[in-house]
Amino acid sequence: MKKLVSAPALFVGAGVLLVIGALLAFWYAPIDASSMGFSQKIFYYHAPIAAAAIAAFGVAFVAAIVYLRTQDLLWDRLGYVSVRIGLLFSILVMITGMIWGKAAWGVWWAWEPRLTTFLLACFLYAAYWVLRSVVDEEQRRATYAAVFAVVAFVDVPITFFATRFLPEGLHPVVVGPGGGGMEGSVALSFAVCLVGMLLLMAALIRRDVEIELIKDRVTDLKTSLGG
Amino acid sequence: MTVEEGARYVAAVYAVIMAVLVAYYIISSRRVSALQRDVQLLEEETRRRQAQATEAGAE
Amino acid sequence: MGGWAQFKAIVRKDLIRELRTRDMLVSMILFVILAMIIFHYAFTVEEGSDLTWFTGGMLWVTFIFAMLLGLNRSFAQEKDERCLDGLLLCPVDRVTIFLAKTAGNLVFLLIIQAVAVPVFALFFIERSFLGDLLPFLVVLLLADLGICSLGTLLATISMNTRSRDLLLPILFLPLIVPVLIAATGATTLIFAEGTGFGSLAMRMLFLLGFDAVFLVAAWGTYDFAIGE
User: Fold this and answer.
1) CA-nearest residue of chain A to B31?
2) What does the pLDDT look like over A179-196, one tens digit per residue?
3) Residue C216: domain span
4) Would you say residue C218 has pLDDT above 80?
5) Structural domain total, chain C
6) Complex-level ipTM
7) Cβ–Cβ of A131/C157 closer than 8 Å?
8) Which of A26, A39, A88, A214 to mutate to test the interface with B (most CBs of B within 10 A)?
9) How far, in Å, are A120, C43, C154, C217, C225 from residue C220 at the CA level?
């Protein structure tokens, strides 16, 4: 019987890059000069996971718009799966962020802008999940989910911006105004981890879309057999 | 913070990431094999019924 | 009939329907004032404790929860009496329906606030803020517009699902957080210190931006949300 889920080339690529990235982070990049010292190594996986989560939600946003334009359920499946992978990565961001918080600031939870925004994003996309589960009709479920995915993705950066109105945060600003920038060795290790994590996200999304399509096939076969 | 203290946090982070990703992969792999079995059974059943229908048509 | 006439007709219909029975308006006003009393008991931990720095938060939490109740009620009626089906059969642009519904909800919220804010000031605010009434009203209007446009879009979606009253807060609350942050900060500053437009400008601009973004987002997606 032919294999229904594609060969794991993307997974292998992601795995290799992530291992190289981790090796670089531990043996090539210097130990951080700040008070965090060795525990700063968390950053090399923590930040790429956050980027991958945002990218996954971005994929869901694009898929939602394309679905609304074409009404093709394939895009609905892509959006659904992207949200799921985005949520998975967001949960990892929360957990690793909490460990980072404990190492850097001595507390497990700080109401820090980025962490708070991610928490809210988790709840938003959990709501997406609930929304899908309470609509029975296929097209309608896809449409509502797409509308909500658009609104949610627009809302997340606005929320992040709004947290600037709150009292000062603790997060290190690495790149951008006020940030120290990265040394060459740090930047290289980080870039390898980032590409690896994005590949892993793409691999997981692709695999899960194929799983969803098999599920659809099962449903089709059942209906054609008279349910 | 000493390297040993830092290493504990780093190890915790990498362990959590690996554990969650591997668990997700294993769970979805089990779903895939279950689904593949379903597809196989359903396709066989469809073929069987089609064969029956053509036999009935021939008689 | 032009778009503007249709808009006015739908808003008028909603207002007449509500004012004829008044049940929603009365219960929402009761709810809002009761919420304030509850807040007083919940936050007064010692004698004469100063609630000034909680006032913005109390006010907006109350309004947001009141709006949730109101949205659920207004769309439940539309759905149960099959009003909306009739409306959709008319040759009316979906965007007009959205704008009219938003305007209707905004009017309700404003009526409630017209009663609730004076009572709130009487209960919690020692400083007279009459001099800062104008910035306060601007913040109020901008935040209301955001709450109503987003609320109308999400209520339209949630009313067509199996668990409509339960779903709306789950969809609405995480999305409305930016408005809550900006409006709460601005309102508290006005109540506590009487800051003028200068130091509130960023928050007002932010609220304006939020309103613009979500009016556009709703304008683009309402067609799909309201269905065939």
Assistant:
1) A211
2) 556 778 888 888 999 999
3) 3-226
4) yes
5) 1
6) 0.88
7) yes
8) A39
9) 24, 42, 14, 5, 10
